[in-house]
Amino acid sequence: MTLNLPRNLRIAATAVAGHLLDDPARFALLASQRFPSGFAKPVAALLDRFGPLGEAYAEWMRGHRDDAVAKLENLPPQRGRKQGLFANLAIAADRPDLLEGNASATAPVLEARAKWQLGELSQALAALEHSYAPSARKYRRVLEGEQTLLTPIYRLPSSAMRIPQAPRSSAPRVLHLLTNSLPHTQSGYTLRSHEILKAQRDAGMAVLAVTRIGYPVTVGKLGAHDVDIVDGIEYHRVLPGRLGSTMPDRLDKQVRELDSIVARFQPTVIHTTTNYTNALVAQSLAARHSLPWTYEVRGMLEKTWATSRATEAAREAAASSERFQLMHAREAELAKAASHVFTISSTMRDELVERGVPADKISLIPNSIDGQLLERSSVPAEVRAELGLPSEGFWAGAVSSLVDYEGHDLLIDAVGQMRTHGIDARVLIAGDGASRPELLQLANALGDAAHLPGRVSPELAKRYVEALDAVVVARRDLEVTRSVTPLKPIEAMALGRPVVVSDLPPLRELVGENKRGVVVEADSATAVSEALTMLATDASRNVELAAAGKQFASSMTWDSAATEYRRVFTDLEPGS
Question: For the Glycosyltransferase subfamily 4-like N-terminal domain, which residue ranges apply (predicted)?
Fold first, then answer.
């Protein structure tokens, strides 16, 4: 577990210098998203003193995006250095329309960034075509690199070289290529990856994980070691002195850096996850070493990207954009090129088949649970007392990433409705994310009946679930939520808690049309309120759903998933 601090500082300094040279105002916006709340609050207070534009930035740093945009809308056209500040905040907020009438709209880099944000790659490149400023030339190289990666049939140059291989083991030895991992990032992605690694290891497979080039230094972890060990799982980092100036350069460098790990570990298969950048690395590394590679599709990238836009207009523009179509085609192409494909829901499997992936080449590995969760037994009120929360009342909530599409605002509104009808309802939402500031504002109206503790450890997260009388997954009806199944409701079932879920295909599949949970109309706080009221007033129904959910969860363990992984990995032909 080597720490090379000088190298890490060079990597971080190179990344920061590139951002500062490109656009210091934009870098400040990106950096503000990573500030801890204890630091962001006084900085925001300082920005409040710098006039209306400073106030807009302050609101953004506090997480009050709607308030920031409202201040931008009321500002007159800016001049001088403020043009760039205004434009970068408007672009970050997915409101490029605010650039109209503002002189900054004519700046090539800003215009290109606005076009790229909306998914119009060709228009973004065209905006830079006749500019010879250093920042414009640099940004053009960046966009050309993105265009290259999205070009059909493009493969990384490193895939052309073949490296002689020694005889390999007959037992599966799996090299996992991941975007990020524990302990530096805690998310549904990293938790699933970790559980899969543990389950494969416990099933007798040799496993090793490697994260993307530069990670975690590029996300601010200057003290990162070359290897982290979590629960006996090794996570190796790819941290060269130079990362490469464009994404094709970086990915190709990552492949070459991984040659030494392949030589030491001697894998029998390369396994990676969405998105296409990971797939390109796996494809190239597998070709160099005459190995099969498998692709785990955990989401449809283009849908996730379009859904993440901040406004309805931006989401609609993104869904019909050039970038959306290119990502859609690229993901389908690479899934078809893989030796085998794994995915997490029947809905997603069916869509992969529609995209041309043979059905017999796809295995369904849904989000599952650690079998030890099934052995836990607890009473919600007793757990709340242990955690220092009021034991009385009916508590509904979630432990989740706090992003808009999860619909936690609907849950808060639903609990408010219940309280107006005389029910002692409470809400607990643990986790962190972009929507937390707005959720805190909404929760203020509930006073002590709302508890939002922020990010918590994995074990404490389970205790918070056990503190709830019902777990709510009020996901909004969007393209991305119609195909992806979250992990948390399955864990809630395993812990014996009834679940209330939005009427979306993967969630209906999970709860079995009201057999193992309550399905409610999506995007409706009233529907959530009615379902929770039923659970709060019908103890027998509550117990019935909890028991059915626990029984279902018993068939959804990572041990069972490992059996399917082993079957596929064993049957793969070398270099297939």
Answer: 188-367
pLDDT tens, 433-458?
888 888 999 999 999 999 999 989 88
Which residue matches tokens 């796996």?
A: 282
Q: 61: number of CA atoms within 13 Å, CB side?
A: 25
Burial of residue 539 (number of CB atoms within 10 Å: 0-12, 13-18, 19+):
exposed
Taking the alpha carbons at both ends of the chain, their separation in whole angstroms is 34
Asked whether 103 and 474 are in contact (CB, 8 A), the reply is no
- The Cα–Cα gap between 102 and 122 comes to 23
Q: How many CB atoms lie within 10 A of CB 26?
A: 21
Tokens for 403? 């992003």
Spell out the residues 6+ positions from residue 358 whose beta carbon is closer than 8 angstroms to its own.
none
| Cα–Cα distance measured from residue 275 to residue 573, given in angstroms and rounded to the nearest whole number | 24
Contacts of 388 (CB under 8 A, 6+ apart): none
Calpha distance 403→435 (Å, rounded): 5
Residue 93 three-state SS: coil
pTM: 0.86
Instruction: Say yes or no to pLDDT of 384 above 90.
Output: yes
Closest listed residue to residue 97, CA positions, set 121, 120, 114, 80: 114
Q: What is the DSSP letter of 106?
A: G
pLDDT in tens, 248-289: 999 999 999 999 999 999 999 999 999 999 999 999 999 999
Give the pLDDT of residue 106: 56
Distance of CA 334 to the CA centre of its chain: 20
To 10 degrees, the CA torsion angle through 368, 271, 402, 87?
Answer: -160
Pairing of the two strands 233-238 and 227-230: antiparallel
Residue 210, SS3 per DSSP? strand
Give me the residues paired with residue 208 across strands.
Answer: 175
* DSSP-assigned letter for residue 219: G
- d(C-alpha 476, C-alpha 428), whole Å: 19
